[in-house]
Design goal:
253 residues; globular; 30% helix; lipid metabolism; acyltransferase; single chain; alpha+beta; L-ornithine N(alpha)-acyltransferase; Ornithine_N-alpha-AT; 8 helices; eight-stranded mixed sheet
Amino acid sequence: MGGSSPAFQVKLAQTSADLRAAQALRYEVFVSELGGGGALVDHDVRLERDHFDAYCDHLLLWDLERDRVVGVYRLLRSDQALRAGQFYSEGEYDLTKLTASGRRLLELGRSCLHPDYRGGTAMFHLWSALADYVAEHDIEILFGVASFHGTEITPLANALSMLYHNHLAPEALRPVAREYQSMDLIAVDDLNRRQAMLDTPALIKAYLRLGGCVGDGAFVDHEFNTTDVCLVLDTARMNARQKRIYGAGRSTI
């Protein structure tokens, strides 16, 4: 954005109006921009919503000067997932090893920023507030699906293979795609690593820098026009530098 930096506030949604603001931003990004859909998408009022919204916490990034929500994160703890019937990701991945681990889990989903706020400090503010939430609830493992745009696998072969060869989750915590699309598409010696990094979305690269890893297999989501991977971040495995990146600039929520 041009001009001075916006003044941000991060808070959890408290009202139905807050939730609608989050769903409206999700519609703008996931439906209008990326071509996604879904049974509960309301095109008349331009809201992207689903069954899980009622059970989740919704972390909202407000631009105070413009009085609008410009970033969201949807958060689903184990106790909330129990009330919802399952984690959202269980529709795409077998999470048996995660849920049987006895660790305190937090599923991250529906993360998005308004286009005008990408590449600046907006995501940093969201992540700083997320760090507070993780600490407050003693979360041990963060996980969730993250997406490549599009459903054609060939253009993603370098990126998916790079994730498979270099960032596969430990066996004891490894989700497995239910409709299995192999990520082992290019031999490690034949990888174009530069292309792989160019093709990997910024959010996925950020999780990798924090020590994140991925489940076994991609899931092609034709409804949302994405190819998904399941990211897992064990907070106990984060080194000191990664913890500083993750927890710097903490914000009250």
